Amino acid sequence: MRNNIVHIGAGELTYEIREIVDVAEKLEKLGINILWENIGDPVAKGEQVPTWIKEVVREAVNEDKNFAYSPTKGLLQVREFLAEKCNSNGGVKITADDIIFFNGLGDAISKIYTSLNRESRIIGPSPAYSTHSSAEGAHAGSHHLTYNLTPELGWLPDINDLRNKVRYNPAVSGILIINPDNPTGMIYPTRVLKEIVKIAKEYDLFIISDEIYANIIFGSGETAKLSEVINEIPGIAMKGISKELPWPGARCGWIEVYNKNKDSIFARYVKSIVDAKMLEVCSTTLPQAVIPKIMSDPRYGTHLKERNERYGKRAELAYKIINSIEGVIAPKPSGAFYMSIIFKDGVLNNRQKLKIENEKAGQLVEEISKNVAPDKRFAYYLMAASGICVVPLTGFNSDLYGFRITLLEPDEEKFKQILSTLAEKINEYL
Question: Where is the Aminotransferase class I/classII large domain (predicted)?
Answer without folding.
Answer: 46-419
